[in-house]
Amino acid sequence: MSQYQEKTTVLRVEQFSSENYRITFRSPDIARVARAGQFVMIKAGQGKDPLLRRPFSIHQTSSSGQLQIYFKVVGRGTDMLARVKVGETVSLFGPLGRGFQIKKSGSSILIGEGWVLHLCFFWRNQFAVIKKNGNVTGI
């Protein structure tokens, strides 16, 4: 599978609580090939601070080239990412990981609770596109 390093533009920053955020990026190459279960590595700051990229699960993608991540602020790197502004440029590398293989027929069950629930949105959307016959049940 193809991987890309993109200089992306921040399109939207949403804060859901004091520590939970969703950021939407303009990332056409990564959004086009990403699958549920994959992640991107994000450089949150400028220069060498922070030195290492941070991994984030892909929350959603769109056919218009948008990619979303949903995350909780747990340290300095995620705090820096939570402070980005609309219009800023952020470096993304991905998609990484194997993703999930979805069979075209048969039934599927998505099970999740707590923090993992945000990942179910991307899975559910891909199930709906790929499945031609069968049901998708969320629990």
From TrEMBL:
One Pfam family in the UniProt entry: FAD_binding_6
Occurrences of domain FAD-binding FR-type (ranges): 3-102
InterPro entries xref list: Cbr1-like_FAD-bd_dom, FAD-bd_FR_type, PyrK_electron_transfer
Top-level taxon of the source organism: Bacteria
Gene Ontology molecular function terms on file: oxidoreductase activity
PANTHER family: DIHYDROOROTATE DEHYDROGENASE B (NAD(+)), ELECTRON TRANSFER SUBUNIT, DIHYDROOROTATE DEHYDROGENASE B (NAD(+)), ELECTRON TRANSFER SUBUNIT-RELATED
Name recorded for this polypeptide: FAD-binding FR-type domain-containing protein
Organism encoding this protein: Desulfomarina profundi
